[in-house]
What does this fold into?
Amino acid sequence: MTIRLRNRLIRSLFYIFVAVLGITCAFYFLQIFRNHIFENPNFIRQDWNMTFSFTKTCFWASVSANGFLLIYEIVMCFLLFKGFEKTQSQEICFLACFLIGCCAESLKLWVPVFNTYTGFSKMLIFAGDATILSRFLVTISLFFCALFSGQEQRQNLEQNLIIVLATSFFIAIVLPLNTADIHKNFKVNHAFSRIVEIVQVIINLITLLTVYLNNRREGYSHWNVAALFLLMSGFYIVAAASVMLWLVFGAAFMIAGMIIYLRMLHRIS
It folds into this structure.
């Protein structure tokens, strides 16, 4: 993949992310104006506060967490394009896949907009599949970022990207959903959820170990290991956040992790 083609793809992703943010904001403003966003009484449980709370579970914490991902992906996509516009680095493409995963995760925001908390609907299926796609796309893209970052893998970049995307989409399609079980952060539950979480943890640990061993072999600093840990941890905290306090921690981890990793990548490149 040439630098010119990669830059065009990242620029296209940036416009897509902006469009998703604009459409989501338009839907929310319309439904809030019509007072239709809180229609479903079955979703309002005793431990669910519709008013703002910093330390308790509340609706706006879940909305803010997914909204943060929308803004995060736009800002980081812009930084990828501007900071590495003339740099030939495979990691940039895998980080772009990570941002696609963030975008897919944020699509959970459409569940309360269309009031599809219960029952069987295409919106719940779409949101559930998007969440599964997000979790695996984030995990696998960072794994490939660590495993295939060497110069000898440059010729296999397109093939590796296809593997990342195809694997994530396949798992998202195959895993069955339980549309009757909606989490507080608007996530639609799916089958084998515990096994999936264990697999993701194992892949993340292998990713960190791979980066650590690569650093020892090349004599690099281990700051990128810490950065990836912050990035992974921050994403999963934000994705699961229904408390504003956890959102603040997760957002700080994601921002710090991406900035540190990009700075280390810029030095290496």
Observations:
- The mean pLDDT is 85.
- The beta strands are 177-182, 188-190.
- The two ends are 17 Å apart (CA to CA).
- The first helix runs from residue 3 to 34.
